Each structure stands twice: as C-alpha cells, then as structure tokens.
Amino acid sequence: MTPAPSPGDVLPSLTVPITRTLIVAGAIASRDYQDVHHDAEAARAKGAPDIFMNILTTNGLVGRYITDRLGPGAVLRKVAIRLGVPNYPGDTLLLTGTINSICADERHAEDVDRLSEDALRLLAEVAVVGTNSLGRHVTGTVVVALPTAQPPLRESP
Amino acid sequence: MRDDLHDLLKTYEGRPVAVSGRGPDPVNSPMIRHWCEAMGDTDPAYTGPDPVAPPTMLQAWTLAGLGGPGGAQVRPGPYRELMALLEAAGCTAIVATDCEQEYLRPLRPGDVITFDSVIASVSPRKTTRLGTGHFVTTRTEIRANGELAGTHLFRFLKYAPAGRAGDRPARPRPVINRDNAGFWEGVAARELLIQRCDACGRPRFPWLPGCGDCGSPDWTAVPASGAGTVFSYVVMHHPPFPAFEPPYAVGLIELAEGVRMISNIVGVEPERVRVGMPVVLEFVRVDDDLVLPLFRPADEGAV
Ligand SMILES: [Zn+2]
C-alpha cells in the first residue's frame, strides 16, 4: 500500500491516449448521446474539427486517476472539475495531481459499511490538472477518503 | 447595453429541470462494468460479488440516454422553455464547462435512483473563445431508494458559435426555380429585372408566372432603373442569425417603376435609415458564390 501522503506530495502522473474508441465508449457508458461525442460530421457542422470527449468521461478519468494513485480502498467524496480545451482523437491526456491538504474525516464510517469503522479516517484534497497538446483540458479538486489500515502482508511466492 | 434577453432568462432561475425524476435503470452491474471498461478503471471496489458504482457515474444514472421512457430531460417545462429561448437567440451550440459532485453514500446494484434538479443560475451574455452565449448552472440532488446519495452541480455554455476567420456561415442561398430563374439571370448580368404584363402592362415583383390583375401568363422582363425610396424598414438587433451581423437594416424599397422589393440598406448606419429616403441599387458580392441587389442612400452627401 502507498504510504499516507502529505500536503505538497505530487502523485505520479497518468497518461491516457485519447482514442476515438475511448471518446465514444465513454460517452455511451455515461449515457451521453450528444452527437458531438460520436458523430464527426455532426461535430464539424457545429464548428468543432472532430468529435471530442464529454465531461462525464473526463470526470470518470479524474476519479480513476485519484483512486489508481491512492487506492485500493480510497473512496471519492467530491470531484469538482472545470474544462478548458477539448480532448480530440489522437491527442494524449496527461493527468497530474498534488496533495493540497490532509485532514481528519469527520463523516461517520457507517456510510461505508463494508469497511471497519476506522478504516477511513483521513481525507485528502488533491489538485488535479490534465493537459493535452492544446493546453489545459481539465483543472479540478478531488476530496478522497484514504485507507489508513494496512492490508495484510502478502506472502511472496 | 441592456440585456433584455438576460432579464427574461433570469426569470428561470430557481425553476425546476426535473421534479422527482427517475433514473431509467436502477444501479446495475452491467452499466458499472461498461463504465469501468471505457475508463480503464480497475479499482476492485467496482467489481466482485458486492460492487459499488464508481462515484463519478453519479450523473450517468440520471440521464435519459436516447430519450426513451423516463427521459425527464425531454418533458415540457421551464427547462425546455429556457433552452428554446436560447436556441431562438442563436445559441444553438452547447458545451459543458463545470461539474461539481459530492458523494454522500455509495451506490450499489439495485439502488433505485430518483432526482430533483433546478436551474440554479443563468449568466448574463458572455463572449468566450467559442462564441457568445449564456452559462447555465443546474443543481441536482440524487437519491438512492429515497435517501440522499449525492449532489451534482453542472454548468454549460449555450452559445452562438463564433465565426472563425473565413469560416463565417454563409448567407442563405436563393431558391431558384422555373418561375424566378430570369430574375437571378438578371442579377448575374448586373441587371435588376422586373416583369411587365404583356396584356395589361402592369409591372410586378417578385416574379410570378401570371399577372395578379388580369391573369395573363404572358410577360416581358424589363430592367429597373435602380432608383427607389425606402417605403418601410426594420433594424435587426436581435436575435442574431448566422452570417448576419446585427444591427443591420432590412428595407421595403419602392422602385421608381412602382413595385416594391425587400433588400438590405447598406452604406448608412442602420439608425439613420428613414422612410422616404431615396436609395439606389448596388450589386454587392457577399461571398464567392453570391451577388445580391442591395440598396444604398442615393444622396451620399446627406449621410
Ligand atoms: Zn396583366
């Protein structure tokens, strides 16, 4: 398990190739059928050069990035994002994160009933930035409950 | 400048987008799996015998998809009215800009999703890199089996796309048919042709197959002198249409030959156009493929 992070820590980045498949699969998985996310001709008619990623997919990728880096067992509490330049097919999204602060989790553990009462005791606020070749695609803040209990040691084979 | 449209748009603040909306499907493992596959998310919390949904799926559970039954978004109501007002104002494009979600309780397969959503705010007219429009913010509370599970603030820009250089939408093309082809042939030859009835001599415009007075189908095309006066006019400020930059004057011009035609009055500030103003014809190339007969004030010295 990752050691508990401290404010100022920089999380390892995540590189996501922006394929046409990812854009379309993300849009459909999020039930977003706006044509600009799957129909290049319709996107061009609306002034975009190609289809582009929907905000729900960006949101999902930001969530995945944080739990990938701070999990397993990390639980998202808040995700707030703002979009900048679009994610077009063929580009690459580079997600980076910096721990803003760590504080005690005041929420009772009963709403995370699958985990023991003190399994989630710390909240981290993480600043996230995602850039592509056009500039900043997303900036945001994520609050995530961190697992503090150590997992049982796994025996090496 | 007063933003009359915004005054109207603001009256929608606090009004509902959806009341007791219902997610089309309960939280379910297949949709969770599709989401995780798309996102490349392998967090073990989202799989196995007792999965939770990725919290960032919150909004997805509320969406109507292709608009089948349960599509709260397509129901008539204030939200649809607001969107129609924005569309009518030329704000035909939409782009999501902000999403702020708080997750209060995990969602598990079987949870029935209900939600209430309100129009939280509508911004004044803003000009952005994409175009000019209004930011609309909605606030949604999502419940699982009646219990508050999350909140969702969503902001989007509904806008009129900015014409990029050389990419401005073209003016509408004339519809040319058998009955008016002669008029457009005249325009191509820089002549403003009107029809004159062969039977009774009455001039007519726009072009029609028969005489409105005597019914004769026989006519002759005659060139108009190009002199006229403003019989009536309007100055278009709003709503904006692609290819037309407001304000601009649309005039009903009475030609010296006695017929009237609608055209633009150019070469003068729109607010200085007056009824009775003498105008003259000018052929203007408005783009690569289109020349139009427009009018400008006859007495240049007066403007
Ligand atoms: Zn006649």
Automatic annotation (TrEMBL), chain A:
SUPFAM superfamilies: Thioesterase/thiol ester dehydrase-isomerase. It comes from the Bacteria. InterPro entries: HotDog_dom_sf. This is Acyl dehydratase. The lineage of its organism: Bacteria, Bacillati, Actinomycetota, Actinomycetes, Kitasatosporales.
Automatic annotation (TrEMBL), chain B:
This is Bifunctional MaoC family dehydratase/OB-fold nucleic acid binding domain-containing protein. It comes from the Bacteria. InterPro entries: ChsH2_C (IPR002878), ChsH2_Znr (IPR022002), FAS1-like_DH_region (IPR039569), HotDog_dom_sf (IPR029069), NA-bd_OB-fold (IPR012340), Thioester_dehydratase-like (IPR052513). Gene3D superfamilies: Hotdog Thioesterase. It comes from Streptomyces triculaminicus. Residues 222-283 form the ChsH2 C-terminal OB-fold domain. Residues 184-219 form the ChsH2 rubredoxin-like zinc ribbon domain. Residues 23-147 form the FAS1-like dehydratase domain.
